[in-house]
């Protein structure tokens, strides 16, 4: 999809970070926007800045964990603009940095419910709310789903598992669109370390869900990892780098959009190569496994 001017893009998680930077990039291309986020105040101030670029911006407070809320977003978008060309299913959360090192049998089940609810079900609801209407309209279009490099690397935590689901879902959709000879296409974005507010995601945690368990007492390695991880994110790429990759990926119909540090992609390479060589997973510290010694 090469021509973006005067076309319509819907962005979830559009009030901050990668979503907001991509909204700015789309507005610079002359696209009209439907901006969705759970944070109403941040959404309004983002929309004001975007309108100053001379594009039409519809704002809709949306909780992507709720199918009803995402369907209402789609209704509002089609009512206002008549059509939609790009859907960027991008809203996402990570509980605390420590949960990225939690084991599946530790931690709180609430972290799984919240993370899977936003990161995976939120994307699925977006696909199911928009794709049938986009297919019926017959216009050219593109679905872009945000996963992560965490969706290409393994760990038994809610974040990685949710992002693996997004990669699988989107890859299957891409194949479906091509097999249908559809004017729609799909891409998955797998960012590496990006300097955003993702580690402050707890600000949006539903109050009726339980909190994360504090693992640091039994697992001092978890605290060490969390401190290091938060510092590494601050040193990460700016979200505008991801936005540039997204626009380029849509224009060139590139499925895997990988705005990531090379050292993370090297681990992806190691994983897939190891899998094909029938090697057991490489430990996170890079030491060989017992069975490989
Ligand atoms: N920052 C990174 O290093 C990184 C790396 C890989 C992938 N990602 C992914 O990028 C996406 C964007 O995250 P970001 O880094 O820009 O973080 P961010 O916290 O700056 O932005 C995320 C946005 O999603 C919104 N959101 C949270 N829960 C929501 C809900 N239930 N409904 C609607 N909106 C909701 C937040 O309010 C926020 O505006 C996420 O899917 C994240 O998992 C981020």
Characterise this structure:
By secondary structure, the protein is of the alpha/beta class. It has one domain (8-260): 3-Layer(aba) Sandwich (Rossmann fold). It contains 8 helices and 7 strands. It has a 7-stranded parallel β-sheet with strand order 3-2-1-4-5-6-7, sandwiched between helices. Helix 1 (17-28) crosses helix 7 and helix 4 (109-137) runs parallel beside helix 5. The model is unreliable at 288-293 (pLDDT under 50). Bound molecules: nicotinamide-adenine-dinucleotide (NAD). Nicotinamide-adenine-dinucleotide (NAD) is lined by residues 12-13, 15-19, 37-39, 62-65, 90-93, 118-119, 146, 148, 191, 193-194, 196-198, 201, 204, 233, 236, 239.
Shape: globular
CATH C-level name: Alpha Beta
Spatial strand order of the main sheet: 3-2-1-4-5-6-7
Looking at this structure, what is the CATH superfamily?
NAD(P)-binding Rossmann-like Domain
Order of helices and strands: EHEHEHEHEHEHHEH
Task: Report the helical percentage.
Answer: 40-55%
- Estimate the strand proportion: 5-15%
CATH topology (level 3) name: Rossmann fold
Characteristics of this structure?
293 residues; alpha/beta; Rossmann fold; 8 helices; 7 strands; binds nicotinamide-adenine-dinucleotide
Outline the fold blueprint.
Layout: E1 8-12, H1 17-28, E2 32-37, H2 40-51, E3 57-61, H3 67-81, E4 86-89, H4 109-137, E5 141-146, H5 158-179, E6 184-189, H6 220-234, H7 239-251, E7 256-257, H8 262-276
This protein binds nicotinamide-adenine-dinucleotide (NAD).
Nicotinamide-adenine-dinucleotide (NAD) binds next to helix 1 and helix 4.
């Amino acid at each position: 999809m090469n021509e973006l001017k005067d076309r319509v893009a819907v962005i979830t998680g559009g009030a901050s970070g990668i979503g907001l930077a991509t909204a700015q990039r789309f507005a610079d291309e002359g696209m009209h926007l439907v901006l969705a986020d759970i944070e109403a105040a941040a959404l309004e101030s983002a929309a004001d800045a975007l309108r100053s670029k001379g594009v039409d911006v519809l704002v809709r407070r949306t909780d992507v964990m709720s199918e009803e809320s995402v369907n209402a977003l789609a209704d509002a978008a089609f009512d206002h603009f008549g059509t939609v060309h790009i859907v960027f299913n991008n809203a996402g959360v990570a509980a605390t940095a420590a949960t990225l090192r939690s084991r599946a049998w530790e931690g709180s089940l609430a972290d799984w419910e919240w993370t899977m609810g936003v990161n995976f079900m939120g994307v699925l609801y977006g696909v199911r709310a928009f794709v049938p209407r986009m297919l019926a309209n017959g216009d050219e279009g593109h679905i872009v789903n945000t996963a992560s490099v965490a969706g290409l690397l393994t760990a038994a935590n809610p974040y990685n598992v949710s992002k693996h689901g997004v990669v699988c879902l989107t890859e299957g959709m891409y194949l479906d669109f091509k097999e249908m000879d559809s004017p729609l296409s799909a891409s998955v974005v797998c960012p590496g370390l990006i300097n955003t507010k993702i580690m402050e995601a707890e600000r949006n945690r539903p109050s009726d869900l339980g909190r994360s368990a504090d693992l640091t007492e039994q697992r001092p390695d978890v605290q060490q990892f969390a401190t290091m991880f938060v510092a590494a994110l601050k040193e990460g790429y700016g979200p505008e780098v991801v936005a540039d990759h997204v626009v380029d990926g849509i224009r060139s119909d590139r499925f895997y959009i990988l705005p990531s540090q090379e050292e993370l992609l090297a681990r992806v390479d190691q994983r897939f190569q190891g899998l094909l060589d029938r090697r057991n997973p490489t430990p996170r510290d890079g030491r060989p496994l017992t069975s490989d010694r």
